Amino acid sequence: MRALYDRAAALARLYGYRYVETPGFEATDLFARTSGETSDVVTKEMYTFEDRRRRSLTLRPEGTAPVMRAYLAEMQEQPSPFKAYYLTRMYRYARPQEGRYREHRQFGVEVFGAEDPGADAEVIAVGDAYLRGLGLTQIELQLNSIGDEVCRPAYREELLAFLRANRDRMTDEHRDHLEDNPLRVLDCKDEACRAVAKEAPKIIDRLCDPCRSHFDGVQAGLKDAGLSWVLEPTLVRGLDYYTRTAFEFVSPGLSPQQATLFGGGRYDGLAEVLGGPHVPGVGFGMGLERVLMAIAQEGLGVPEEPGLTVFVVGVGDAGRARALDLARELRAAGVAADTAFGDRPLKAQLRMADRAGARYAAIVGDRELEGGSVTLRRLADGEQEDVSADALTTRLGGEGHAG
Ligand SMILES: [Zn+2]
Ligand SMILES: [Zn+2]
Questions:
Q1: Which of 32, 79, 130, 276 has the most crowded Cβ, counting Cβ within 10 A?
Q2: In the prediction, which pLDDT does 240 show?
Q3: Per-residue confidence (pLDDT) for residue 403, from 0 to 100
């Protein structure tokens, strides 16, 4: 997980995003307002509790609303656009299943203050670069535009009329409750709903001119960045503050319930829901446990934290004292080095070196002390060389710090 975090942070910085951290819990109202009072998140999945003064608080179930709240409260003077990333834990009381954890980790990015379709394309490119950087290749980018407050209301009516006419074909709760949120039927995973959704009118054909040209701009930006995508008209997000771009990265190798690696999109109306000014925004939140599943599914290795460069082995009292000195020198020079605590036999120390994942063991015994040298053993193949103790740091400094 540390390696996943490190890669995410490095990538985000590469694109000019800055780290943002928000509290682990917030006023329940923040999530109730932004996730929708009737949404699954609010009605079934939040960890909500009262504090000692009977205020209702909720463990953070998602990242965008807290970042926007913090931005509106304290960061509006930041240069615009405000580009931020987070790496943090989320809490959802969902039915436990593979790849879904009640406490899970997310890498997310948000861009506030940019209306331009270039921001949407960049956010998508960051997500794509992250997955591909881990070696994943079986990923598909699905894209849609869900319009805005100008073109969506008419579409919604048209969709509702279509769904009413097809109500008999549905078998789940949508049969009786489609009026609440007809768009939800489009991304329902139920087979019957999916069959209906396939034939439903597509919002993409009914966008107003500004939405159309924004969507064209996003696609031009993606093309420019060398990405390919498929248009997915049933990809929607069910709340009014979501606008225009909606996207998902899916792994066709995983089961339909788990296929979505992550999703994101534009939320130009969010700041106003929180009582702020108009702040256009776009971003994504990526569950890292799901990413690990995709890595396993493609038979790839989980990235590891960079290991130890050298384990310094000291034999005898004088050898151990020298080993401790050498370890200090190496660390001061930025070489990852470790050594044993207390007196251990040579073999036991070499086993420790192996278990620590060190690339080298540097052995200091009586013979080496006399000659002012160390025996440097490459643990992968046992190859040994005598290196002058003074030259050890220089010799290993060139090994870099990668695992
Ligand atoms: Zn359904
Ligand atoms: Zn529109």
A1: 130
A2: 77
A3: 38
Given CA atoms 330, 4, 228, 279 in this order, what sign does their dihedral have? negative
Residue 65 structure tokens: 């609303």
Instruction: Tell me how far apart the alpha carbons of residues 67 and 19 are, in angstroms, rounded to a whole number.
Output: 11
Q: Quick one: DSSP state of residue 87?
A: E
Residue 152 phi, psi (nearest 5): -75, -40
User: Which ligand does the CA of 204 lie closest to?
Assistant: 2
Report CA(42)–ligand 2 centroid distance (Å): 28
Between the CA of 140 and the centroid of ligand 2 the distance, in Å, is 26
**CA angle, 101 then 102 then 105, to 5°:** 65
What is the pTM (predicted TM-score) of this model?
0.88
List CB contacts of 146: < 8 A, sequence separation 6 or more.
Answer: 152, 183, 203, 236, 237, 242, 243, 244, 246, 265
181 CA to middle of ligand 1, Å? 11
Q: To which residue do tokens 């007809």 refer?
A: 182
Read out DSSP for 260-320? EEEEEEE-TTHHHHTT-----EEEEEEEHHHHHHHHHHTTPPPP-----SEEEEE-HHHHH
| Separation between Cα atoms, residue 384 and residue 365, nearest integer Å | 15
Cα of 152 from ligand 2 centre, angstroms: 7
DSSP for 193-230? Answer: HHHHHHHSPPGGGG--HHHHHHHHHHHHHHHHTT---E
Distance (angstroms) between ligand 2 centre and the Cα of 240 equals: 13
313-369 residue pLDDT tens: 999 999 999 999 999 999 999 999 999 998 899 999 999 999 999 999 999 999 999
Ligand lying closest to the C-alpha of residue 175: 1
Predicted confidence (pLDDT) per residue in 349-359, tens digit: 999 999 999 99
**Residue of 126 and 397 predicted with greater confidence:** 126
Tell me the pairing of strands 310-314 and 360-364. parallel
Tokens standing for 123? Answer: 């956010």
